[in-house]
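Translate sequence into structure tokens.
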Amino acid sequence: MQRVDVVIPCYNYAHFLQECVESALSQAGVDVRVLILDDCSPDNTPEVGSALASRDKRVTYRRHSANKGHIATYNEGIEWAGGDLFLLLSADDYLLPGALGRSAELMRNNPDVGFTFGNALIAEPHGIITKRVDPLGNKSVPPKQVLTGPQFMRLSGANNLVPTPTAIVRTALQKQVGGYHKELPHTGDMEMWLRLASHAGVGYINESQAVYRRHSANMSLQYYGKTILPDLRQRKKAFDILFRQGADNLKKDEKLRRFLTRDLGKEALRMAGLAFNNFDVATAVAIQRFALEVSPEVRNSLPWIKLVCKQTIGPKYWYALNSIGRRVAG
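Result follows.
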């Protein structure tokens, strides 16, 4: 039976903590150990965490005397881990039955796989499941699939393909590649999956593995104004660090680097279009300039042409045309 060390960073999530911890402890087919890392929460996390640890010897509760932030907390968890497999599970998320067993089995049968991920369910603040995230699409995808590192990187492109609470990593590989970069507070997960994939294969499980809770305290998936450009710059920095510090074979792969930067340019144009649709013309122009900076060839792409057409028409008339189009389509 493989041991899975589950690190649960917690800041102000006492009301979710018990559900999260119990979802890990109830996993069948694996030997689970849990570390709750309380990053100096001002709520009643100490009471909840201590109670959970006192009821089950598999649970350890540790509280910071001062807030260290999520990157330092993640890296502390990596240092603590010593089992076969490792999972960082935010206290506001939780695992679904069988998730760890499915991942452990895939990795036991495929020694070349460095980490696995799967589908996730999205829950609203009241706990009702509203959406399912299928990273590879559910159609024609086998129950389990093994990707090479380069295959995973191309599928991921400039976006984070992995629902974080589903990512189970071989502890030895995690120790080998190191922890999260403090320079990447918003794109650390994306860079980590790419870094791991530069050293090993990636397993995908086409089942719902965990529940990601969406609420006002985590980043909106919708338009978020002036933070778009900083987020895109973080992704570029993630690529720069990846190709500087990743596996030796990755550092020499200029073809893959061009692919990723071109995909980032296209994603930037998509976000520029979103800003334009929200009448934020200045932000749209700034993001468009960034897209050209990271990948000059995007000037010949369809997203670029579409954005230029929007800018030529102007936001007011573009909105009017879109409204007419939606009415006709309806």
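Note: The longest strand covers residues 201-213.
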